[in-house]
Specification:
four-stranded antiparallel β-sheet, mainly alpha, single chain, 744 residues, ion transport, Jelly Rolls
Length: 744
């Protein structure tokens, strides 16, 4: 009992001692931690105050160096955090790309279906590359030739009732027509079609085939089979392999070729599209009248053939117009011209010696006259409206000329002076006629967004891409460039009109498409500076796009001018959003522009035609983007060639023509990018000398991108005996090394 009590007492004392020690240690540690935290707070405050003073000193020094004249727009200012995130994302994407390649290789080894799906996808890609645009020049020429063959069938086969003999030329046209329509049947699977409600062109082979099968494929296939069947019968009869009733049955069977005229319904859409290509209103009116004349002549041709067929239908009858005029003895040409003459006089108030002599001919004549009343009256009214429309195109100008001639007559102006004044007025009228702008056409608002983008690209791209930066940027970002073209606006400026004046805040950049402008800088230090003339293909107020800017001079037109306006705020947002990274070409160009003119503020003006400096700025701006694209293209080519090499070993029976084409395309792309990067790097010293500032691409040389190309290029020529990871890992390793060097 005593031992138990003493043990309990000692245990409680030991526990109290242990708790006291732990508490003392906690107090000491807490005090130590508080002291350390306090020291860290003080050092952090001191470092922050020193950093703030250094930053303010740097900003003040930069402002002093720039003399307060060059300040980059907020959208172009460098953001370090997003740049670091972009670099980190590129590194993570490269790592994830390596994992995807390894996982894809493993899946391909285990599952052959993945390779087959990839192969099908590549085959569809290859087929889609063969699709023609329905509005391309090649397709239009193909359709025009087909339209000529349809017109030939429309004229030749009905005229066979007159007994025209077959000649080598007609036989050659027969076989050429059959071969053409057979080729057209196949080519139709590779011609895109327009989705009218969306304004888009479908260029996928699967969609084109489905659309063609639902529309014209049954008709085209039936006509082609019928055509070649008749050709086979002609060959059998010509070589006396088979007898078709002395040729009478075969001649009647040839009239089945008239079913080719069903293609006229298909050609009507093409004729409308071809007519829409004509832009001149005068030409459109004349073409419309010509089309009516051709239509009337074709109608008369068919009526003449039908009229002769009625006359020879029953050869036993003596009361026919053919026998009454003894046409059988006068030849086929005379018979055709007589029938055509009779057909034409049914449309006009005229007469001739040919008249119907039996009840069938009389009934046919009545039907033709009733139809001619409607057709010819519509024809006359259409031509009259066309002539009135043609006359009204220049009604206002004609009214002014009438007043002018009346003035000359009343004032008795001499004839020589009238001739001089008239010629001068005609020339001045051509010069003063202003163009129509898209903003003036309200019906264009009904177009879908895709068609608006395509229209703006064709209208404004030739003018805006005169600037080297916009031309290069549009090559990098073709989809974003369409948004830039949509933001542009065109307008006219009369002679002696002012565009902007000195001291005005610049909000737009101007591109001159026609005419001539003069710019006079308002500079007190250089009062006798010569004015600068701006010609088509040049621009004004470029600094407003990159820096905060006020016009330092006055610009006005010397003659009637057409300009394209590019709003700086909208354009800067589009240019900056295309690539938000720090190496984006537009951002680097803005920073290079500001740095260059911060050193030479006296050269900064609204008109600045030094193309050497602009070219150096563009090269400086896009060299890093070229290198980044080269790395990405090298990595993507490595991924694609790995799968191709594996499938070649696993499935040797497949046709790899699409893969070969894709390999060649990637190889050409890599070579082109490599050459451009090499050129940019070789011109590095010239850029430094031209710009007079430090190169923004220092720290990276052309050699840093060579291993990627060297590692990828042999893959194209790699044979099937190469191991899988011998293809994958060297390219990835070199790409990782290049990315690490570029990040530094």
């Amino acid at each position: 009992e005593r031992r138990r009590k003493s043990s309990r007492t000692s245990n409680s004392q030991s526990a109290e001692q242990v708790q006291g020690c732990i508490k003392a240690e906690k107090d000491d540690a807490h005090g130590t931690v508080e002291v350390q935290l306090e020291r860290r707070r003080r050092s952090s405050r001191n470092s922050n105050s020193q950093s703030a003073e250094q930053v303010q000193g740097c900003i003040k020094a930069e402002k002093d160096d720039a003399h307060g004249t060059v300040e980059v727009q907020l959208v172009w200012q460098h953001e370090s955090a997003p740049a670091r995130r972009a670099i980190g994302s590129r590194g993570s994407s490269l790592g994830s790309g390596l994992e995807r390649i390894r996982s894809a290789a493993t899946v391909t080894l285990d599952n052959k279906g993945v390779a087959e799906k990839t192969e099908k996808r590549r085959c569809w890609t290859f087929l889609n590359s063969l699709v023609m645009n329905p509005g391309s020049n090649k397709r239009v020429a193909f359709e025009v030739f087909g339209l000529l063959l349809i017109l030939y069938d429309l004229v030749w086969w009905p005229a066979q009732v007159f007994g025209f003999a077959s000649k080598p030329f007609t036989r050659a046209i027969l076989w050429l027509s059959s071969a053409f329509w057979a080729c057209d049947l196949i080519v139709s699977f590779f011609v895109g079609f327009t989705i009218i409600d969306q304004g888009l062109i479908e260029m996928r082979v699967s969609k084109i085939a489905r659309h063609y099968a639902r529309t014209w494929l049954p008709v085209d296939l039936s006509l082609v089979l019928l055509d070649w069947t008749l050709n086979a019968l002609v060959l059998l009869s010509h070589h006396e392999v088979a007898d078709f009733g002395g040729g009478t049955y075969l001649e009647k069977a040839q009239l089945l070729r008239l079913l080719r005229l069903l293609r006229l319904f298909k050609a009507s859409g093409f004729i409308s599209a071809l007519f829409d290509r004509i832009q001149s209103e005068t030409t459109r009116i004349l073409v419309r009248v010509l089309k009516l004349l051709v239509f009337i002549m074709l109608i008369n041709h068919l009526i003449a053939c039908s009229w002769y067929e009625i006359g020879i239908n029953d050869m036993e009858r003596e009361d026919t117009w053919v026998k009454a005029n003894d046409l059988k003895e006068k030849g086929a040409v005379y018979a055709y011209t007589t029938a055509l003459h009779w057909s034409i006089i049914q449309f006009v108030p005229a007469s001739m010696e040919v008249v119907p002599v039996n009840e069938l001919e009389r009934s046919f004549t009545i039907v033709v006259i009733m139809s001619a009343m409607v057709i010819f009256s519509s024809f006359i009214s259409t031509i009259t409206n066309a002539m009135n429309q043609l006359r009204n195109l220049n009604s206002e100008r004609n009214a002014e000329l009438v007043k002018l001639r009346r003035f000359f007559s009343e004032k008795r102006v001499s004839a020589s002076l009238v001739a001089r004044i008239s010629s001068c007025i005609h020339q001045a009228t051509k010069l003063t006629s202003s163009r129509v702008h898209g903003e003036d056409i309200s019906i264009l608002e009904l177009l879908p967004a895709s068609l608006k983008c395509d229209l703006a690209e064709e209208v404004y791209a030739p003018t805006l891409c005169a600037h080297p930066l916009l031309l290069t940027w549009a090559e990098y970002y073709p989809m974003e460039s369409k948004r830039l073209f949509v933001a542009a606006r065109s307008f006219s400026l009369g002679a002696k009109h002012e565009l902007f004046h000195a001291g005005q805040v610049a909000e737009n950049m101007y591109f001159l498409s026609s005419g001539q402008m003069v710019y006079v800088r308002d500079d007190r230090e250089l009062p006798h500076e010569r004015p600068a003339f701006v010609s088509p293909g040049q621009w004004l107020a470029e600094p407003a796009m990159w820096i905060k800017w006020k016009h330092v001079g006055q610009s006005s037109s010397t003659e009637n001018c057409e300009l394209v306006l590019l709003p700086c705020d909208s354009a800067a947002r589009i240019l900056s959003r295309s690539n938000a990274s720090s190496y984006a070409g537009a951002r680097r160009y803005a920073q290079t522009f500001a740095a260059y003119f911060a050193k030479q503020p006296d050269r900064l003006s609204d008109v600045w035609p030094d193309m050497d400096v602009i070219g150096a700025m563009v090269s400086t701006a896009f060299i890093k983007e070229e290198r980044e694209m080269l790395r990405q293209e090298a990595a993507s080519t490595t991924n694609s060639t790995t799968g191709i090499a594996f499938r070649r070993r696993r499935t040797p029976s497949f046709n790899f023509a699409p893969d070969t084409i894709l390999e060649e395309h990637h190889h050409k792309t890599l070579t082109a990018l490599h050459e451009r990067v090499r050129k940019y790097s070789a011109d590095g010293q010239n850029r430094k000398d031209t710009l007079g500032i430090g190169s923004s691409d220092s720290g990276s040389s052309d050699d840093s991108v060579v291993p990627a190309v060297v590692a990828i290029s042999p893959v194209v020529a790699q044979n099937s005996a190469s191991p899988l990871f011998a293809i994958v890992l060297p390219g990835i390793a070199s790409a990782s090394q290049n990315l690490a060097q570029g990040s530094k």
